Structure formats: structure tokens, C-alpha cells
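Training component of the fellowship. As part of building independent skills, the fellow (R.M.) carried out the full modelling exercise for a liganded target. The chosen ligand was pyridoxal-5'-phosphate. The inputs are recorded below so that the supervisory panel can assess the work.
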Amino acid sequence: MFSHRTSWNRTTNRLSLAVTDRRQRGLDVVDLGESNPTRVGLSPAWRELGPLLDCPQAQFYAPEPFGLGSARQAVADYLGGRVPAEQVLLSASTSEAYAWILQILCNPGDVVLVPAPSYPLLEYLAALAAVELRTYPALWVGGEWHIDLASLTGAIDTRTRAVVVVSPNNPTGSVASPSEIEALQAICAERGLALAIDEVFAEWTGAQYGDPPATPATLAGLQGCLTLVMSGLSKVLLLPQLKLAWTAVSGPPALVDEALHRLEIVADTSLSLATPVQWALPQLLGRRTAWQAPLRRRLRENRAILDNLCSDTVVTALPAQGGWSAVLRVPATEADDERALRLLQQRGILLQPGYFFDFPGDGWLVLGLLQPPERFEPAVAALLGDAHTSL
Ligand SMILES: Cc1ncc(COP(=O)(O)O)c(C=O)c1O
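Fellow's submitted model of the complex:
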């Protein structure tokens, strides 16, 4: 009765089972993989947010496929005018934007290139669109991540429709360099591919996570090929619960035109945006500096704790250019998933094994930087203690 493409393996993995088991036994779990700002006291306070959502215009419904004009203009302004509002479309989430992009670009069986390591977001979206994902590697060379452009080019064939770039990447925090972006545009233009850029972490860069510039660093508005740049409120304003994201479309005018016409029909079939958040958007974006400040402080503090505790140990916290995570290089003396399970069962610390993000081989652990320092520091200390005793 059901489709092949939704016949997923739903077996709960050992790590999740062990988390449930610990919690049922009343034991603490410090979730260092936590990425939900609403669970760690980092989302804007409701007393500030609530009044902004209480707007009388929201009692009327305007079924606009790409969202209200005022909200699209607010995003265009936020992006520093690098694309006109007519080339900005709103969706409920970045994940939904990805789905729409796959739908307009790919026939069943077509291929999209995605980075590895990276966040495993597209697997299910691609399966639903009957699209095949093929990875291209990022390589850790000379203390930095570099996109392996030769492998990427080698992976392109007649079924390839798009290249996805995640910058800053999750979880490596690596930012695509200007020369990489230039090269990617040239490759896409030459091979007739679209470039889909996920910049949800664009606000969270810089070794020190300092105050954001007036205009965020964005790749919106590239002209070399059809480019679709996605981001949204879940990471920019720490408001995943509001469900609003955007895509800025740019490139050769005929391709932009065609993409927008197709996207408009896709968006019109679901009209997934709620109205209050759209009316509130200009004011919400206006609060960005203040609302980001608590997380900037926390990222600075936790990153310093991590670097300090890891110095002179067998564990290396790889330097990152951005994002909310840290990648640990640990001696590959056991499989990463075994180590993650053991750390949970013996120390009550939950972090993600590298294979979850498609890291090559063992010796990679990923932890998030969102937990309050008073929970983060003892957990990292216990993790490093474990690394010493288990070697
Ligand atoms: C790199 C990346 N892109 C997109 C998303 C999804 O964002 P959204 O909440 O807008 O769907 C995530 C979520 O963590 C992510 O890490």
C-alpha cells in the first residue's frame, strides 16, 4: 500500500536507546549535541517577542506564494540590497526551501552534489524528491578545510543538476573562500548547474564571535550562475519556533526568471507561511544585534573553555571559522559510535560520532557549544579524562 521511497528503516539507534534508558533511570544526560536554542535559554524572551507578533493586520489572510511584500522587502534590506525583494521568497524553513529547490531542478533519478562532512539534512528530502545525493569531500589540510574542487568536478555527470554548498558548514564551521565561490560559479555556469548555498550560520563567524556587522556576511546576489541562497530565523534570530526562512535567487536573468516562475507555483501549492511572523519580520530583524548577544557570549565562553581544556591533551579541538559546533580529533583507538555510546553510559555525556556527519573514518567527535558553561565545562573535562584513561 505504501511507497518505496518512504519505506525507511525506523529502528532506533543504540545511542538514542541508551539516552532513553538513562533518562528513564533518572540519570542526568548532558546533551552536547543540543542545537535547539529554545532549550538552553538562548531564544529571545517572550516578553519582548510576544508583543511584536501581536499585530492587528494578521487577522486578514493574503495568500501570497512567496510571502507578503513587506516581509520580502525586510529580507532584501537585511541582505544589504544585494538582491531586489522580487528575487526573495519566503518559506516556513530552510528545509522546505531545499525541498522546493530540488523539485524545480530535478527529475527523478537526477543527482545533486552535497559536501561531506556536513549536516545530514538532505537525505530524507532527496529521497522524497527521488533525487540521488552524491558527496564531494572537504579536506582538512594545513589547519583549514578546503573544498576538493577536483573531486567535485569529477563527480559531475549528465544527471547532475546542482551543487549544494553549506557555508559556514555544519559542523566543521568552515567558510567557503572567495576563490572557492568563484570556482564553483564557473563550474556551475560551464556545466549548466545551479548553485544552492545554505548560509544559515552566516551570522556566526569569526574566531571570537564578535558583534555582527551592520550588514551580515552573505553570498546572496552572486551573478555567475543560477544561485539560490538560503537562510532563516531559526539560526539568525534563534527563533526556530517562528518558522520563517528565505531564499535569495540571483544569476543570469533568464534563469532567475524561470526559477522564480516555477518556485512560485511550488510555493502556491502549500502556502505554508503564517501571517503574524511576516508582519513582524521588519521589527524582528531590527532586534538582531541585541538578540544575538547572549549566544555570542556563550560561543566565546564555551570555545575558550574547550580550547583551554584541550591544550596539551591527546584531543585536538579543530579551529573553526564559525557555526555552533566544534569538531574534536581523537585518537582512533575505537569506533566513534562505540566511543559515543561508552561516553554516554559511563559519563552521562551525549555527543555525536563523526560518521553521523560523514567524516572519513574514525577519530572524529562533534559537540555543540550551546550548553550553559556550568554544564559544558564539567562535561568536556569528563570527556578529556575519559580520553586519557581509555588510551
Ligand atoms: C546547515 C543547516 N542548514 C539548514 C538547517 C535547517 O534550518 P531550518 O530550521 O531553517 O529548516 C540546519 C539545521 O540545523 C542546518 O544545520
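The panel noted the following from the submitted structure. Residues 116 and 137 are 5 Å apart (CA to CA). The chain has a mean pLDDT of 96.
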